[in-house]
Known about the structure:
Elements: H1 41-80, E1 87-92, E2 95-100, H2 101-140, E3 142-144, H3 160-164, E4 170-172
Parallel strand pairs: 3-4
Antiparallel strand pairs: 1-2
Amino acid sequence: xxxxxxxxxxxxxxxxxxxxxxxxxxxxxxxxxxxxxxxxxxxxxxxxxxxxxxxxxxxxxxxxxxxxxxxxxxxxxxxxxxxxxxxxxxxxxxxxxxxxxxxxxxxxxxxxxxxxxxxxxxxxxxxxxxxxxxxxxxxxxxxxxxxxxxxxxxxxxxxxxxxxxxxxxxxxx
Length: 173
């Protein structure tokens, strides 16, 4: 029988998770409840970057919908001045369909209202994500590159952070 190909090497015995044991990263960067270990600096940075990416995604989606809302407003404003029996074309699911202005205008206004509601919802989510991000930064003493080190209140003295049992903080680029 031929020896196993070098591409198919198995980890040493004991490296596989056993039934009943959870993998080390099952907490996804969150500290375990109770007296578990605190997350490593790498886990804190990874979670912080993930939160920042989620916030950026929400912001970009809100901006995209704002542009779409402006387009809807422009088209509605233009069609209000046009004869209601005039033909117009509307893209529905990638297909251009012929309709009249009086058929298209109510649908556009309805879409505009729905987009406005979605934008309001995204803005609420964006604010909540911002608060979560700031709380996470404060909790883990995260500073961004180029950001000044926060000044300690005069009452803390030199051993303030060590006496509280806090970490030295994490620097994120």
